[in-house]
Specification:
single chain; alpha+beta; four-stranded antiparallel sheet; 11 strands; 37% helix; 27% strand; binds L-homoserine
């Protein structure tokens, strides 16, 4: 049996809608796979999903990419049995569907003797992501797979650029326990963006990438604003503006929506500040009787991993 772990991710990073994302250490999803002799992909066990996920491989994000790999590689009489451990909440903005999709293809790749590189596996994992979110955005899948901070330079063809991670960069993620589905959070966005907004956003993303190379935290913070999604999505998240104010008062470099929300994230210099930001933002939500989980993490530089597992 092979088991794979794929970490949670923060997508968009404010200025990079659909093109920037990073991986955090935990939480993450696990998928285990082993050969069967029925010649098909079967889901045999799902844990941690409260009964929400489908056992049909073509309807489950963990197996969407496995099915494509299985077709491509040719399998003879062997099939693959799949067991899924969901360790992340759905609709959280932490790339839950992407983590399952990535763990699935990572595990099967190792089972097959590693015929594909991680970059190639991203394409397969997108076949899983699309099942859950209705779109092939790679800003969760790519960082979950590769680790680090990742730029999706192009979708057609898919080109992924690994960006440098400045020393001392920490991320705080707060998950208010309400559910926002990516599919719905994408539907409320405008289909066109005005030139004025596009110019501001282009300047910001260039500033952000430059700041990663130079380790300029001040430029990083100034560049992390969002004209594309936040103006429409912030209203879905309770106390969004107040959370930003609190995070910035406690020393955060930047604050924004993690992926399509409801999770929010902050960048800080150093673990101590990142923890202070977590406490401050959490207490604000807890005062309002909104339950939260928080994750304070350095950037996960290794991404998904797979190992032979004796079960
Ligand atoms: N870029 C995607 C979005 C990420 O914002 O819709 C979803 O996690």
């Amino acid at each position: 049996m092979v088991t794979a772990f794929a970490p949670a991710t923060v997508a968009n990073l404010n200025c990079g809608f659909d093109v920037l994302g990073l991986a955090i250490e935990t939480p993450g999803d696990e998928v285990s796979v082993w050969w069967n002799d029925v010649g098909e992909v079967r889901i045999v066990k799902i844990e941690g999903d409260d009964g929400k996920l489908s056992y049909l491989p073509e309807e489950n994000t963990a197996t969407g990419g496995i099915l494509t790999m299985f077709e491509m590689v040719g399998k003879g009489s062997r099939g693959i049995d799949v067991a899924i451990k969901k360790k992340m909440p759905f609709g959280s903005g932490l790339g839950s569907s992407a983590a399952s999709a990535v763990a699935g293809v990572m595990a099967v790749n190792k089972l097959m003797g590693s015929p594909f590189t991680k970059t190639e596996l991203v394409e397969f994992a997108l076949d899983g992501e699309v099942i859950a979110s209705g779109s092939r955005h790679a800003d969760n899948v790519a960082p979950s797979m590769m680790g680090g901070i990742v730029l999706i330079k192009s979708y057609h063809p898919l080109e992924i650029v690994q960006l440098p991670v400045p020393e001392g960069l920490w991320v705080t993620v707060i998950h208010p326990q309400i559910e926002i589905l990516t599919k719905e959070a994408r539907n409320i966005l405008p289909k066109e963006i005005g030139l004025k907004e596009a110019i501001i956003q282009t300047g910001n993303i260039a500033g952000f990438v430059s700041a990663l190379y130079t380790g300029d935290f001040e430029l990083m913070g100034k560049s992390m604003t969002d004209r594309f999604a936040e103006p429409y999505r912030a209203a879905l998240i309770p106390q969004f503006d107040l959370m930003r104010t609190k995070a910035m008062l406690h020393g955060a470099i930047s604050f924004g929506i993690s992926g399509s929300g409801p999770s929010v994230f902050a960048f800080s210099k150093g673990e101590e500040t990142a923890l202070k930001v977590a406490t401050a933002v959490k207490s604000l939500l807890n005062n309002l009787k909104i339950e939260t989980n928080s994750y304070t993490s350095a950037i996960n530089q290794s991404g998904a991993k797979a190992w032979h597992d004796l079960g």
